[in-house]
Design a protein that fits this description.
Blueprint: E1 12-14, E2 17-21, E3 26-28, H1 35-84, E4 85-95, E5 98-100, E6 106-112, E7 119-122, E8 126-129, E9 136-146
Length: 147
Amino acid sequence: MEDFATFAPAGSYLKGQLVNWGAASCKIVPEGSSAPGVMKAAVFLLLTLLVPAYHTDAQCVIDNVVDLKVQAAISSIVSSTLAKAKLLCQDVSARGALVSCPAGYKPTGCACGMACGSWDIRTDSTCHCQCGGIDWTAARCCKIGLE
């Protein structure tokens, strides 16, 4: 925008352009052109800045309403599904240091024979007792089911 003067004190001379400030009006006059052309450009720039800002606010309101409706629908679906959810558990035991849960179930805790309290869960479905000479291992296996 080298053709246009920027705001400056009254009577300033910037890049070959005189900026005049009056009590009733201010004029920004580019080099080699008339004031009406500048006025048209200023109005155009003002509109290009204000119109999208106005529509952006309207779009935000619409987006917020849509978000609230979607959130309400999802929370309704989630709460009705959770009301039907039920924790289903069963105990499984086996001889030795390993016991696996049935398909779809996950171990939530393990117990070991020979007073061994050291165990871990392997491959997301198997209880493993870590002491040597274990005679039995048990697992509490659970899953979430719907009524």
